[in-house]
C-alpha cells in the first residue's frame, strides 16, 4: 500500500502536486511574476533617467504620472519575463549548474546593485562619457562576477545587451524618443552596460524562482 501511495504522489495524483508539476502553469506563474518585477523596475529606473533629462520623450507620448511612454513598462516587463525564463532553461540545456549559493537575500542584493548602477548613470557627474562608460562597464562585470559567474550568464548577457542596444538605436533613429548628448551613434555609450546588468539581474531572479519551485516540489513529495 505504501508503495502504491508513493507512486501516486510522484506521478502527481494529488491536486497540489499536479498543479506545481504542471510545466505550463509553472511557466505562466513565473512569467507573470517576472513581468511585474520588470514593469516596476522600468518605472522606477526610467523616472531617474527622465528627472535627470537623460531620456527625453516627445510631449505627445508622455502619458503616465512617471513621465514615461505607455509602451516602455510593458516592453521591459515582457523582456524581463523572457530573460528570467530563458536563463534556467539554458542552464539545464548546457548542464551548467549555478555554482554560487542561491538565496533570496543574494538576489535582493543583486537588484540593489543594479539600481545603484542605474542611479550612477543618471545622477553621478563624470568628466566625460568615456569615463562614465568604463566605470559602468566595470560595475556591470563586477555584478556578474559577484552574483553569477556562469559562462552562459555572461554570454546571454552580452548577446541580449547587443540586441537591446540595436533596438534602442532603431527607436531613437525613428524619433520615438531621444537621449541628450548622445556619443554612440544616437544613444549613450554606457547603455549596453545597463542592459547587461539588467539581464544578469533578471536572470538571477528567474533562476531563484525556478529553484524555489523545485524545492517546494521536493519538500511536498518528502512530506507525503
UniProtKB/TrEMBL annotation:
<dbReference type="GO" id="GO:0006695">
    <property type="term" value="P:cholesterol biosynthetic process"/>
</dbReference>
<dbReference type="GO" id="GO:0032869">
    <property type="term" value="P:cellular response to insulin stimulus"/>
</dbReference>
<keyword id="KW-1207">Sterol metabolism</keyword>
<keyword id="KW-0472">Membrane</keyword>
<dbReference type="GO" id="GO:0032937">
    <property type="term" value="C:SREBP-SCAP-Insig complex"/>
</dbReference>
<comment type="function">
    <text>Mediates feedback control of cholesterol synthesis.</text>
</comment>
<dbReference type="GO" id="GO:0032933">
    <property type="term" value="P:SREBP signaling pathway"/>
</dbReference>
<keyword id="KW-1133">Transmembrane helix</keyword>
<feature type="transmembrane region" description="Helical">
    <location>
        <begin position="185"/>
        <end position="205"/>
    </location>
</feature>
<keyword id="KW-0443">Lipid metabolism</keyword>
<keyword id="KW-0753">Steroid metabolism</keyword>
<feature type="transmembrane region" description="Helical">
    <location>
        <begin position="130"/>
        <end position="147"/>
    </location>
</feature>
<protein>
    <recommendedName>
        <fullName>Insulin-induced gene protein</fullName>
    </recommendedName>
</protein>
<comment type="similarity">
    <text>Belongs to the INSIG family.</text>
</comment>
<keyword id="KW-0812">Transmembrane</keyword>
<feature type="transmembrane region" description="Helical">
    <location>
        <begin position="154"/>
        <end position="173"/>
    </location>
</feature>
<dbReference type="GO" id="GO:0008289">
    <property type="term" value="F:lipid binding"/>
</dbReference>
<keyword id="KW-0153">Cholesterol metabolism</keyword>
<keyword id="KW-0256">Endoplasmic reticulum</keyword>
<dbReference type="InterPro" id="IPR025929">
    <property type="entry name" value="INSIG_fam"/>
</dbReference>
<dbReference type="GO" id="GO:0036316">
    <property type="term" value="P:SREBP-SCAP complex retention in endoplasmic reticulum"/>
</dbReference>
<dbReference type="Pfam" id="PF07281">
    <property type="entry name" value="INSIG"/>
</dbReference>
<keyword id="KW-0446">Lipid-binding</keyword>
<feature type="transmembrane region" description="Helical">
    <location>
        <begin position="27"/>
        <end position="48"/>
    </location>
</feature>
<feature type="transmembrane region" description="Helical">
    <location>
        <begin position="68"/>
        <end position="87"/>
    </location>
</feature>
